């Protein structure tokens, strides 16, 4: 991934909720480069969701309907615990 693309993705991880900033930014720094391309695309698409939806997904209050994205969300949650 180019430096410019990574910078843009970091910027998209910045949200209105500090908690989401920390969850998404931590995942981006720790795990993003090691996940398969399909999951990278799912993560990038996930960032188009609203903050309330993202928060519910990350807390596990609501499952994401797409199984690949749901797997990425599980990885985001695991990265937060590491």
UniProtKB/TrEMBL annotation:
Q: Which InterPro entries match?
A: SDH, SDH_sf, SdhE_FAD_assembly_factor
Q: Does the keyword Secreted apply?
A: no
- Name the GO cellular-component terms: cytoplasm
Subcellular location per UniProt equals: Cytoplasm
Q: Report whether Transit peptide shows up as a keyword of the record.
A: no
| GO biological process entries | succinate metabolic process
From the UniProt annotation, give the residues forming the signal peptide.
Answer: none
Which UniProt keywords are listed?
Chaperone, Cytoplasm
Domain of life of the organism in this record? Bacteria
The record ties this protein, via Pfam families, to: Sdh5 (PF03937)
Family per similarity comment: Belongs to the SdhE FAD assembly factor family.
Name it: FAD assembly factor SdhE
Naturally occurring in which organism (per UniProt):
Nitrosococcus oceani C-27
